[in-house]
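Technical note accompanying the year-one report. For the benefit of new consortium partners, we illustrate the data format agreed upon in the data management plan: each record pairs a sequence with a structure-token string. No post-processing was applied to the example shown here.
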Amino acid sequence: MAETVGPERGVRGALIAFGVIAAGCVVAFLPSWSILAERWLHWSFGYDHGWLIAGVAAWLVWRERSLLAAGRHWWPGLAIVLLAGLGWLAARSIDIVIGQEIMLPVLLWGAALTVFGGRAARALLFPLGFLYFAIPVWDYLNPPLQSATTTMVGAWIGASGVPALIEGNLVTIPAGQFIIASGCAGQSFFITAGALAALYGHLHYRHIGRSLLLMAVALAGAIVVNWLRVYIVIMAGHLTDMQHYLVRVDHYTFGWALFAIGLVPFYFLARRLEQPAAAEPCAAPAEFRPQNPAVVIATVAALAAAPLLWVIADGAAAHGALDASPVMPEAPGWMRGEAGADWRPDYHGADAELGARYASDAGRVDVWIVYYGSQAQGRELVWFANRIAAPKSWRVERSRRLEAAPAMNEALIVDEAGNQRLVRWWYEVGGRPAVSTVGAKLLQAVARLSGRREAALVALSVACDPDCKAATSTLDDFAAAMSRSLRQTVNGGTSDRAG
């Protein structure tokens, strides 16, 4: 028969065990938790409610303390911990912070499943899932919320008889201009409304359908409140020739005041959706069991496995990094000179950028190598702000992928004067080539975990003069002759071909 203990000792032991695995999760994944905490500390990031969410989640866990005390360990839960750790490791190796943060509640829940068993883990699904209201997965909703705000507010202004010109997210009225920036999208109201509705439903409803209905009403109401806020601010600017307090000083606090007023009908509806409490059948007294220290220790060790692998791989990558950036190679039959000033890749945070122009009777080819000795957040080969040509100077007319060896991307770019260039490029990551950004990211993960940090963009370009037929032929000849040499240059003399 399993050993049992008194309620007070059982609850105290369960809370200590949960505290140990929670602390182990924080310490093991401290870099990811630190980035998250940094967001919670800054008002401008829109997640300053994070500490409150974390506190509510801790309180919700404490409410389930009796289930934790009555739980029995379940060793298969370690598989979830290890798999979530591998997910974190993959995201860490390619510097996707949101991927790391998404794994944090999963890691903690898997640890709780291992230590306390299935019944307790089911009870902790909501408390730990509640943390996602403090994780920036909601940022992806900001662009559509911003567009919807612009569209609806523009319609309301027109219906009010005020002439308005809508250009993108810019609203122009006779009195002045308003930019409906990302902060005006209402994301903070949206997250807060969702969190309040989810918490209320969890505490007061027995059926998930009512919770989902309440959340849908809350989210829709938050969106409408934000539209009303922006509309009132613009109308205040129209009526006061842009001199109103809401225009000149502060409209953010006004938005939260509107939000607070909107909570009155929300909570009225929430109470109406509540059902009379049903009589609970008498439950058998719970048997409280002491926690097995070996299970807790094994769970903390499983949590530390992925971060330990990362430290080992990152140390190997630092030891094996190339000492010097690449140097442009010579090309037989081509004269190498300074790169032209009219075009270059628009990449950021690189350790080195090398450019050269190769000339022969066949034509002139500009070559650029954008080299990263190592990659980190904001200093990545594949990053949202990186472009094959600066958007302010060039537009991409068409693009395609050339599957014939050597595989490359190709784009026709045009500047404001109508000048055309044919550009071809590929990526080199850890000694291996990639054509797609997804392939480059996957190779980054493999390279980082195998001790390689270096990565580069290799781009070739020819001006279309008078048309692109001759440019295509020139690029074909140059790529066939030089792609191998360029690969060797970027990879420190290696020339392995994979994928």
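Partners are asked to follow this layout when depositing records. The chain is about 50% helix and 15% strand.
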